[in-house]
Amino acid sequence: MLHFDRQGTGEPLLFIHGFLSTNHVYDKVLSYFTKHYDVISIDLPGHGKSSYNNEKTVYDYAIRIVELLSSLHIINATWIGHSMGGYITMAAIENHTEYVKRAAFVYSSPVEDSNEDREQRDEHIQLVQTEGVAALAKKRIPTYFAFQGDPKDVNEAYQHADQTTVEGAVGALYAMRDRPNQVDMLNRVDIPLLFLEGTKDLSEAPFHTASPRITKAITDTSHMGMLDKPEQFIEALQGWLTVK
Questions:
Q1: How many structural domains is the chain composed of?
Q2: pLDDT tens track for 69-118
Q3: Which end of the chain is more exposed for a tag (fewer CB within 10 A), N or C?
Q4: What CATH number did the domain enclosing 213 receive?
Q5: Which domain holds residue 183?
Q6: Do 61 and 2 contact (CB within 8 A), yes or no?
Q7: Is the pTM of this model over 0.85?
Q8: How far apart (Å, rounded) are the C-alpha atoms in residues 106 and 80?
């Protein structure tokens, strides 16, 4: 079973972190949401305190989360996924719709990897297997902050990455490399969706949609907006959550 923290009462909100991270990436913003909601924040397999069990696709990760929610007798939660956590949330919407009331994708795109991106994932897999997770973290984390992160936040991100196992990192890289394009699927979905985008995000591809169910909001941040400017992150997410 996945490791998770749970605080607050009310409507269930499920927070899912991204690659090379843990549920503590949300620490700057969770204290607000726990005052109003039943907040569950998880560690993905091979990250933080969750063990890796041979997950190789975003659908495998979604199944692990659904298993957790089922064990907690929670159905129809609001899913909030950062980056890779967003990709997993899209897989859950596709295959486990009954567990998703609505979803927010924070600094996450439904566009699949380009051929160049896939080649880079393969290079990262080789790097992790030969030199370890720390070598990849040193290469990737500065880009997550658009090379402008507060040193304390960047150091925190490295500490989160230190809790990722080699197997967990490799499995996640395979899952991200092979994820499908989900733009058409999300355009057909009849639940509220939010895409929170950062003006300085170097990691996620933009996309266009005409779906009336999809809302877009912007923070003046990097890929790590919940750390860069938590007040903007809270304002954007809570503004969407309260729309009826």
A1: 1
A2: 999 999 999 999 999 999 999 999 999 999 999 999 999 999 999 999 99
A3: C
A4: 3.40.50.1820
A5: 4-241
A6: no
A7: yes
A8: 7
